[in-house]
Specification:
The chain has helices at 3-13, 23-30, 43-57, 67-86, 90-103. By secondary structure, the protein is an all-alpha fold. The radius of gyration is 24 Å and the shape is flat. The N and C termini lie far apart (63 Å).
């Protein structure tokens, strides 16, 4: 057997397959027993909840971030997240703009 076929055989036998990211698959490995309810929320909502709890409720921002400011930053973050979910990605906007230009609508 030559080197090329040996390498191909080894690659075929020991091929590592990394499946796509899946929160459902990761929850059992991260938490013993049941996963907390907040892990089923979208990541942006989880992050906003963490910001709200740390800064607005617990007041852990110190002198730099007061409670009211923490509430404001949480609201800004949620607004930016919502805008990101509603606004199409730049590549889609460019494609639409190019299609409009080609059609003479721009």
């Amino acid at each position: 057997m030559n080197d090329v076929s040996t390498r191909e055989t080894i690659a075929r036998v020991y091929r590592e397959v990394s499946p796509a990211f899946s929160p459902e698959r990761q929850r059992p490995t991260l938490f013993a027993g049941r996963a907390p309810v907040h892990t089923y929320l979208p990541l942006d909502v989880q992050h906003a909840g963490s910001l709200f709890w740390q800064f607005a409720v617990a007041g852990r921002g110190g002198a730099a971030v007061r409670r009211l400011s923490g509430l404001w930053y949480t609201a800004l973050f949620l607004g930016a997240s919502a805008q990101r979910w509603v606004t199409p990605p730049p590549r889609v906007r460019r494609a639409r703009r190019a299609a409009d230009t080609a059609a003479g609508r721009a």
